[in-house]
Amino acid sequence: MSKHYDHAYFERWYRDPALKSAAIGGSARLARKVALAVATAEYHLERPIRSVLDVGCGEGAWRAPLRKLRPRVDYLGFDSSAYAIERFGARRQLRLASFGDFAMLRPCPPVDLLVCSDVLHYLDAREIDRGLPGLAELCGGVAFLETFTREDGIEGDTHGFKRRPARFYRERFAAAGFAPLGSHLWLSPALRDDAVALEVPGA
User: Fold this and answer.
1) Rounded Cα distance, 84 and 94, in Å
2) Where are the alpha helices (DSSP H) in the chain?
3) Which of 42, 48, 120, 134 could in theory staple to 102 by disulfide, Cβ–Cβ 3.0 to 4.6 A?
4) 55, 202 in Cβ contact below 8 A?
5) Are 44 and 57 in contact (CB under 8 A)?
6) Reported pTM
7) 144 pairs with which residues across the strands?
8) Residue range 79-124, pLDDT digits in tens
9) How far is CA 172 from CA 105, 126, 179, 189, in A?
10) pLDDT tens track for 158-191
11) Which residues form the signal peptide (predicted)?
């Protein structure tokens, strides 16, 4: 059975109070992620962030906490959910596209912060391999690539979850030019050569 990112999906996994332990959502948890990503990007850029590209953005949940921290940030989101784009696209700057479309899609100049949160572990390897080089080109600062693996204790939405080893993602991120910073954060190819040895694990 194919997976549908419709209204019922977002209600269940992002807003259902009966699923507090397994739900993806939660404003406090999201605010911490956003604060971490923003601070890390600004540390490496040595200035406030100005632009964010959110690939697999869903309903654009990152937009509000980003704007709370940086009211003038330019936010652009893409998702494959026709429901999310139809409902929220106009007022939240969301556009329709799949991850694999980024093999060719270049909707903006390289951004300060690229977000791809809770997406990659649901995609086929071929789609990851098509789209990931495009994400690397579009990231001029730091990427938040939140991804879970078969080594992790997974709760919540496991329908369509690909139980791959962490090595699968590390190798692909490195091949695309990203350097690991920890906590799902990756330094862009544009900045990786500027990092000092102990900022990048294994350098």
Assistant:
1) 8
2) 7-10, 27-45, 63-69, 82-92, 125-138, 166-176
3) 134
4) no
5) no
6) 0.89
7) 115, 185
8) 999 999 999 999 999 999 999 999 999 999 999 999 999 999 999 9
9) 19, 12, 11, 13
10) 667 789 999 999 999 999 999 999 999 999 999 9
11) none
